[in-house]
Design a protein that fits this description.
Chain A has 184 residues and is mostly helical. Chain A has two domains: 95 residues, no CATH class; 67 residues, Winged helix-like DNA-binding domain superfamily/Winged helix DNA-binding domain (Arc Repressor Mutant, subunit A). Chain A is 63% helix and 0% strand. Chain A contains seven helices and no strands. Chain A is elongated. The mean pLDDT of chain A is 80. Chain B contains four helices and no strands. Chain B has 85 residues and is an all-alpha fold. Chain B is elongated, with a radius of gyration of 19 Å. The model of chain B has no long low-confidence stretch (mean pLDDT 87). Chain B has one domain. The longest helix of chain B is centred in the middle third of the chain and has 20 residues. The chains are: A mainly alpha (184), B mainly alpha (85). Chains A and B meet through helix 1, helix 2, helix 4, helix 5 and helix 7 of A and helix 1, helix 3 and helix 4 of B.
């Protein structure tokens, strides 16, 4: 009895962070991870009709993603002319998504957040950020971590661009020496 | 003192280096920076640390930022339009 419904309109909002986090801990390249997540959503759309509702949407998407990641490594391997990875998965695109639901979540799934080094690194960065004067910490966070445009930050905090770069410079110098003590 | 076209001060080099971390330095600025990097040890050390900091921050980010999410959303919506009646 199918008890899960599929609704692609909410996919990006609900699952993009989760899928990205899952991917980035496996391929350790942000851009490649984004491409894989994007491909996963598109493949999900294509095989939507095969979704039987036996697993949750998220599990279903993760199983598509897993295969995308395998394909990615297989491709690098064949580019290098090295060992070939053979999988017995059905590669017929008509039935894509069918077998996926049989492979429900495995409890040993690893995400980047579980990765000890990564958690410690985030903690170290936030710890150092906490030691900066408030304004420097704010500007650094907006610019570096949240990736706001220079203009947006200037408008928001009512400062000029050259002001911003001076603050950024001080913050970066302080952050680098703080992390040097606590991380490297 | 007249400002030189090719040679920049240490402070200016650091400023360009900061901008480079966010992809906001022009090609001309980057050329000037690389000239200074070829002979100035202090600028080299600063650049190395600065690059390391950028790498570390990137490595610690395990979620998509706003820009990345917008890009994803756009790609997805284009495709989604094909699936609606």
């Amino acid at each position: 009895m199918p008890n899960h419904k599929i609704n692609p309109n909410q996919w990006i909002t609900l699952y993009s962070d989760y899928l990205f986090n899952y991917t980035v801990s496996r391929v350790s390249d942000r851009e490649m991870a984004q491409d894989l997540v994007s491909e996963t959503f598109l493949a999900g759309l294509k095989s939507m009709k095969n979704f039987k509702g036996e697993a949750s949407e998220r599990t279903w998407l993760i199983s598509i993603l897993k295969r995308k990641i395998i394909d990615y490594y297989r491709k690098i391997n064949s580019n290098k002319g090295k060992a070939e990875v053979r999988m017995s998965y059905n590669s017929d695109s008509e039935t894509e998504g069918d077998w996926l639901e049989e492979r429900v979540a495995d409890p040993f799934d690893r995400t980047a957040e579980d990765n000890i080094e990564n958690t410690e690194l985030s903690a170290a960065i936030h710890n150092c950020l906490g030691k900066l004067p408030e304004k420097q910490a704010n500007v650094f966070e907006m610019k570096t971590i949240l990736n706001y445009e220079t203009e947006a930050i200037c408008n928001e905090l009512n400062i000029t661009a050259s002001n911003l770069w001076v603050i950024i410079h001080r913050a970066r110098t302080a952050m680098a020496s703080c992390l040097e003590k606590n991380w490297f | 003192m007249k400002r030189s076209i090719l040679f920049i001060s240490c402070e200016e080099a650091h400023h360009i280096c900061d901008k480079t971390q966010y992809g906001e330095a022009t090609i001309w600025e980057r050329i000037k920076l690389s000239i200074r990097l070829s002979w100035c040890k202090i600028t080299r050390a600063y650049t190395k640390k600065n690059n390391q900091l950028t790498e570390l921050v990137k490595k610690s980010q395990t979620n998509l930022d706003n820009k990345e999410k917008e890009k994803l959303q756009k790609q997805f919506e284009q495709e989604l339009a094909n699936y609606k009646d």
